[in-house]
Amino acid sequence: MPWVPGLAVRVLTHEGARSGHRSTVDALVELVRRHGLAGITVTRALEGYSTHGGVRASASVELGGDLPLVIEIADRVELIEPLLPELAGLVT
Question: Which tens digits make up the pLDDT trace of 10-29?
Fold first, then answer.
């Protein structure tokens, strides 16, 4: 397979972020799935710091906290670029 130009979009957010009536993560995963993009990866932090909430750490069994998330979407440039306005609408 020949190399093609790709694009990775990184979204920095947190577990409690909402997009309308559902979580930002769910909204982004659905957008990527609906458009058949190559993939999306959601990484949950073990620990994070912000000026708004101080230090947050995860216990090994803790679920439902509000830790930082890194969401990465990757595919060919011509498939991602048309979705950037919709993507931006979900995360702002």
Answer: 999 988 899 999 999 999 99
Average pLDDT in the 52-60 region? Answer: 62
What DSSP string describes 13-43?
EETT-EETTEEHHHHHHHHHHHTT-SEEEEE
Q: Are 58 and 46 in contact (CB under 8 A)?
A: yes
Give the dihedral of Cα atoms 28, 88, 68, 8; nearest 10 deg.
70
Identify the structural domains of the chain with CATH numbers, from first to last.
6-83 (3.30.70.120)
pTM for the complete prediction?
A: 0.79
CB 11 within 8 A of CB 71: yes
